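Give me structure tokens for this 334-residue protein.
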Amino acid sequence: MKFLKGLVLVIVVIIAFVVIYGATQPSQMEVKESIEINAPASLVFEEIEDFEAWDDWSAWSKMDPNMVQTYEGEIGTVGYKNSWVSKNQKVGTGSQEIIEIRDNEYMETKMGFNDNAAENLASFTLTENDGKTTVVWYMIGAETPFYSRIINTIFKPMIAESYKRSLIDLKKIVESKTIVLPNPLGLKIVEVEGMSIISIKDSCAVGEVPTRMTKIYTELGIFMAINNIETAGNGLALYYAYSPEKVVFEPAFPIIGEVEGTDRVKVKKGPFGRAIKAIHVGDYEGLSEVRLGIKEYAKKMNVELTNSYWEVYFNQSGEIEKAQSETHIYYSVK
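Here you go.
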């Protein structure tokens, strides 16, 4: 009899503990985990918005590879839904459905488990900075009565660990993808072989460049004619500084054979090595946009440029319409 009384007392104490402890706990379970992924937000979002892709990185999906899953609606839109049925008690039956979505920024879903009417909410928030994306995965559970809140305390560490492992696998998958950067200018990195050039270095205000360059090319042409120097290609110009107040540039011609220069006309090896190349067809005024595009492309490619660049001119001024002028632009890569 004493044993029974003692057993009843123990049970009462346990129940009292559960009730009292539960009453001190939050009515909703909250879980938040985050990770930084070395990739643009668009690549990360591709994996998150498509529930079928979750099989590759979600720890929840991997708990039962044999679960039966169905999908409804259009990927990446409100109403897109994933339902599952599993014989694994840890997985059970349930569904998740997108209720709010903003491309490459945010996605929120509502989740239900084992025919329970209560809904749980989960969200992904993506923040991109310098080509890297921070992903925050947050879940807030349904309201629970005080006498069952201890269950939240038991399950929270398990769910948090599941989120951590899922985000690590998501990071591996996204970072293994081949990143295709926007490249509307058709830029590419090339290896340039050096050649002998004759040149004259000069400087002037930006508005004076066309006139000054024409005079220098004429002077170089006369020098080549007098000295029987044969050109090896199209005219080019090296640039060392470019601002409205002052442009430091060096018009040049590639040449064949050995040539002796003067104090004014220099003979040297032309630019060579790795460079980002662009081809521009049109008025020279459009070159400024190309230059900006090259710098932006280099930044995304994590490539460091030198302070100099050069242009090769495939049509001499006056030969054709300006809209048909072809210029090749090269920026040296460190």
